[in-house]
Design goal:
This protein is an alpha+beta fold. The protein folds into 2 domains: about 1-100 and about 230-290, no CATH class; about 105-230, no CATH class. About 50% of the residues lie in helices and about 10% in strands. The chain has helices at about 1-10, 20-25, 40-45, 55-70, 70-75, 80-115, 120-125, 145-150, 165-175, 185-195, 215-255; strands at about 255-260, 265, 270-280, 285-290. Strands 1, 2, 3 and 4 form a 4-stranded mixed beta sheet that branches. A hairpin with a 3-residue loop joins strand 3 and strand 4. Helix 4 runs antiparallel to helix 11 and helix 6 packs antiparallel against helix 11 (about 215-255). The chain is elongated.
Amino acid sequence: MFFRILLIMVCAVPLFAGGSAEWILANSVGTDVSEDANTFYQSDLGSSYSGSGYADSGKALPLLMSAILPGAGEVYTGHRRGWAMIVLDAASWMKIRSYNSDGDKFEEDYIAYADLHWDENRLQASCNTNDVSDPAGFYDEDNLGNAFYDVTDMTDLSLWVSREDDEREYYENLGKWDQFVFGWDDFSENYFLHYGFEDTENTSVLRDGSVSPHREFYRSLRKQSNDAYANADKLFTMNLLVRVFSVIQTAYLNGMIFNGDSDGFAVAGHNVNLVAQPQGVYGSKIGVSLSY
């Protein structure tokens, strides 16, 4: 959660990147300066300029506040509507935390379930071509892994990865891909019950949930975990968009969006306005107008 909050603050930094914010806030004294006494070079704000006019920190600061906490800029400029956005933002972060907690819980559950019902030795036994049991006691009398995929070593199965090499992919594969179904402890008996040993050319039968109910339950646990994480990500994305909306709304309420009769604010003597123009029925254009 800390890293996601940090990401939001990082996203706000480009608004004042390159030292411009420090320059604006440090020089926003609201005092007229003579042209002869002050010259601002390209390293300051991107173009050479000789003249008067400083940015008003009272207008720049609310934008930064809204980018960090939606509604804060509105409240700072005296608009009570900002309180509702602050409350909703706090509630959304709590919900994100809840979703992530649910995702973690289901992840712990499906890992424990897989460790209980799926075994690499069972998978390897299905690839053997003789009737000798392996040291773990798994017999290869059906040889279904070998019959379906013509392999004698489980590591020759496509997409195989060991738990040591990639734990996340390891647990994803054993439930997702059909070639690993032989490792589930209820597969063999259910397969013979429904299909017998008649057709080993048609691998689609391995996708039948009835041949391994344990695998299907495992997949349901993974889905619940993935859905919880996905909901957290969607809500996080919405929070970022709300911050963009809050910045634009703060600019509008603070008279910074150009509407024909607003002076906006000045940077080194140049008037700067945010421009919002409708485009067609559903679109819009947002930009910055800088006068010379």
